[in-house]
Specification:
The protein is an all-alpha fold. It is 76% helix and 0% strand. The protein has seven helices and no strands. Helix 2 runs antiparallel to helix 7, helix 3 runs parallel beside helix 6 and helix 4 runs antiparallel to helix 6. The protein is elongated, with a radius of gyration of 23 Å. The relative contact order is 0.18. The model has no long low-confidence stretch (mean pLDDT 91).
Length: 195
């Protein structure tokens, strides 16, 4: 696929930029620039290796994983594929729409009721548990709706097909996950070196 080549080039550029940053930080610290923390020092190497996993563990990583699983489920269910709708698919689409509306109503009740569970302690929507869980909520809505459609329309014949759709979604997202890893590491390295 064409976007794989673009992502591979971006990853290569980020890798080169990371190596250049290692040597640039060392060079700038050697010229007695006080505001620069070198990555090629004992402190810098300890920071880089010791914080590597901690720096990558961000909500955005979980969001990418959840969205890729939801995307795979939606794609494999065939809910958006233009095709001649049989009676079974029309019925499945109607039931899935009803399920989606019910789920949206449940989420709305968890947000709009007085002293709602998903509001912050001050009663605000942003920031709140709802705003922090927005991507997981949207992913769950997409997964449940497309799973319902897929099982009713027989594009999913078993729960293994649903599981397989998650795998397919994750497989399609792997290049973006690799790009994410390199972007976060370069960004965090720049913050360490210069700030």
């Amino acid at each position: 696929m064409r976007y794989h080549r673009i992502i591979a080039r971006l990853v290569l550029l980020l890798l080169i930029a990371e190596f250049l940053l290692f040597f640039l930080s060392w060079l700038l610290s050697a010229t007695l620039t006080d505001s620069v923390h070198p990555l090629l020092s004992s402190e810098g190497i300890r920071w880089f290796l010791g914080q590597f996993c901690v720096l990558l563990l961000r909500p955005q990583l979980i969001w990418l994983i959840l969205l890729s699983m939801a995307g795979g489920c939606v794609w494999c269910s065939g809910i958006f594929r233009p095709s001649q709708l049989s009676f079974r698919r029309q019925s499945a689409l109607r039931v899935s729409f009803v399920v989606l509306v019910m789920l949206i109503m449940i989420v709305a009740l968890l947000v709009m009721m007085p002293q709602a569970v998903l509001l912050s302690s001050t009663g605000r929507l942003w920031p709140s548990p709802f705003s922090r869980a927005l991507v997981p909520i949207l992913s769950a809505l997409a997964i449940i709706t497309s799973m319902c459609y897929g099982l009713l329309s027989r594009t999913f014949t078993s729960l293994f097909d649903v599981y397989d759709s998650f795998r397919i979604g994750l497989q399609q997202m792997v290049p973006f996950l690799i790009l994410y890893l390199f972007v976060v590491m370069f960004y965090e390295s720049c913050l360490y070196v210069f700030f």
